[in-house]
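It is worth pausing here to work through a concrete case rather than discussing structure prediction in the abstract. The textbook approach is simple: state the sequence, then state the predicted structure, then interpret. We follow exactly that order.
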Amino acid sequence: MKLKNNLKKLIALSLLSANFTFFSTTIGSKNLNNNFAYAYSYSNLYLNQDIEVIRDCYNVPLVHIPGSLFYVEKKLFDRNPKLYSKNNLNKIFKKAKRKAYNKLGSTYNDNVEVEIYIYDDDNIEEFGNILNSFFISNETYSDELPYIKIKRSHFFDKNCTSLTDEIMYAMHYLCQEKSNVIVDCYNVPLIQIPDTLFYVEKKLFDRNPELYSKDNLNKKLNEAKEKIYDKIGLAYNDDINVPIYIQEDNDGNEIFGKTTNATFCVSNTFGKIRIKPSRFFSSEYNSLAHEMIHALLFYYLGDNINLGIDEGLATQVNDLDSWGDIDELPERSVLLSNFYPSDREDRLKFYHSNQHIVLNWIKTEGKEVVPKFIRKVQRGVDSVKAFLSLGGKKVIKRLCLDVNRY
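Step two, the predicted structure:
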């Protein structure tokens, strides 16, 4: 009678959803007992609740965890439904929220909803080759909730690093709904300038709000875009939503370090540009345009670009004599290198040499060679090989350098 009742439970469970298979038909075997325990555990969690299976924009099946804002890729859920229980997921989420609170000094508002989608690590369509998680505000679709998408291994990471980062992005976004003041990961208060990508350190904004007006900031942004197109033929389009933080360094030199005045930082989501006001408003250094080129190349190529070529392209908007006499031949040891030299003199040679070779490359082949280079690397060609095949080899030979080194 007990076995008969158990079989009834299993049959009811199988009718609940044809999408899930839990037991073997080998009655009386150990296999049946193991599968029954698994199925019974599953039924305890979800037998009396509706299981919703949706498909995302890539046609990936996802299970909605009842009573929560979690969606789990169906194949992950099928393997271990207990792991993806509401209580287990919320436990990890609360841990990440506490870490975000400790970093930002503000609480995650539970009344504001953010959906979380958990995918298998091999999901290239969702994450590409470089991302592990990202936050989308869904500002374009006002009737939809903002959401976080994250790989399985990064969600269950004991340090909650990626999830904490994305929660901080969510907190920034949700904060904007109530106030235009946020606090960044260095605990620096920033004013978010409405309808722009700009965040200005509050103490700077308070001193001179007119200087940091939307029109004034966008004017500098458009000047930088024009400079980029003029020098390397790439358009910085509106899809590249990279926030720009204008701020001074803090007491510990944590933001910029001792020698840097502007930087493009890659993060789990879009990355960001940080720049000192003296460099942002300067027409001499073009630091904003330089960092925007790094953001542009990351947008198109991710990490799949040689460091020397990356810097060589970015430095086209800078003074050609910033790192040495532009008429001097490049230094072979640092040309097309994939590493920043630690020594200051060698670092100057690195910038000068790669600026020099890219300048000659563009002069020889024309600005249209840069979009060609990007398309070739996007098709999977190594960036150095793409550079050499699109005229870089001729330039190196003409400068009497050993092309076989590359």
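Step three, interpretation. Residues 1-48 form one domain. The radius of gyration is 27 Å.
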